[in-house]
């Protein structure tokens, strides 16, 4: 399958759709999920086109994992988390909904379940969570 440059993450990268940025470097962007399943839920994407891990280059994967590691450690610190859940889905049958490679980082606390998917978060809280992670970077 070919890459669709009209997907929501491609539009975010082009500045056509706003986002709450946590971290950015030459190769990756980390921004907050607007339907967070946990406080501090954010996404890491490559700045170059690829649908998912199945067509990603080693360079794209390396860049993303470097950012995932950095942001996950900052999120642990920012939220006093007990752990991190890292999610990554591939193709519709694998649960992927946006066809641009992305990694979900969810700070987790012992005994606290994730919230259900698909519910819009409070944007003021989301912005505050982004600031907390950015401050811990």
Q: How would you describe this structure to a colleague?
A:
The chain has 137 residues and is α+β, with helices and mostly antiparallel strands. 31% of the residues lie in helices and 18% in strands. The chain has 3 helices and 5 strands, in the order αβββαββα. It has a 5-stranded antiparallel sheet. A hairpin with a 3-residue loop joins β1 and β2. α2 crosses α3. The chain is globular and about 40 Å long.
Q: What key phrases describe this protein's structure?
A:
5-stranded antiparallel sheet; 137 residues; HIT family, subunit A; alpha+beta; 3 helices; 31% helix; 5 strands
The residue fraction in helices comes out at: 25-40%
Low-confidence stretches: none
- Overall number of strands: 5
User: Which series of helices and strands comes N to C?
Assistant: HEEEHEEH
CATH structural architecture: 2-Layer Sandwich
Strand order of the largest sheet: 1-2-3-5-4
CATH topology: HIT family, subunit A
Total number of domains: 1
Number of helices: 3
Radius of gyration: 14 Å
Summarize model confidence as the mean pLDDT: 98
- What about the largest sheet? 5 strands, antiparallel
Shape: globular
Query: Can you say what the CATH homologous superfamily is?
Result: HIT-like
Distance between the termini: 36 Å
Can you tell me the CATH class?
Answer: Alpha Beta
Report the structural category.
alpha+beta
Strand composition percent: 15-25%
